[in-house]
Design brief:
Length: about 180
């Protein structure tokens, strides 16, 4: 009995310490997410190496954006010294939990690709299908996609699909403001 308690105590200590060592500062991305982001960039932009450069948003402009912008979710994507696009990393609500997604932009600020990185529910996973997500490709900062009108509804994934559509619309609106204020060019 003492060995089991000792093992449990050791396990709790390891989990606690792991949680502490795995906590991130504001400018770090979870390693699991980072791997998925890197893979998405490699496939989408057809590059072997890339670098993400954080985009710092002035507080007065940031307070006016509908999407949450911080130093760890809006980036320039570089291949060597060349700008090849932009990336937004966000979270959106599903029925009970949140899911992580990215929106990748061309240099002209049109959507090159959107991708659901981590989906944490049993129902609604259809929003991760590229068949559904391809509806966002080509949208520009002038667009405001509306679920059920511009973006097809998904039976069985209404909350998640609606949430993703609203999230992308907010990102587009935010990027439009950043372009107007010449934060993005």
């Amino acid at each position: 009995m003492l060995k089991v308690n000792s093992k449990i105590s050791s396990l709790i200590a390891v989990l606690f310490l792991t949680g502490v060592t795995l906590s991130f500062s504001a400018s770090e991305i979870n390693p699991k997410l980072q791997k998925k982001i890197d893979a998405a960039i490699t496939l989408t932009y057809e590059v072997e190496q890339s670098m993400l450069e954080e985009i710092v948003i002035p507080a007065d402009i940031n307070s006016k954006t509908p999407a949450t912008l911080s130093e760890n979710n809006l980036f320039k994507i570089h291949n060597d010294a060349q700008l090849i696009g932009y990336l937004y990393l966000g979270e959106a609500p599903s029925m009970k939990r949140k899911f992580d997604y990215i929106v990748m932009f061309n240099t002209d600020l049109t959507i090159k690709k959107s991708k659901v990185l981590i989906y944490r529910e049993q129902h609604g996973k259809q929003i991760g299908s590229q068949r559904w997500l391809k509806q966002f490709i080509g949208l520009s900062v002038a667009d405001n996609p509306i679920y059920g009108e511009d973006i097809d509804a998904i039976s069985g994934a209404t909350i998640s699909a609606s949430s993703m559509t609203k999230a992308v619309a907010n990102v587009l609106s935010s990027v439009r403001l950043l372009k107007e204020k010449q934060v993005l060019k």
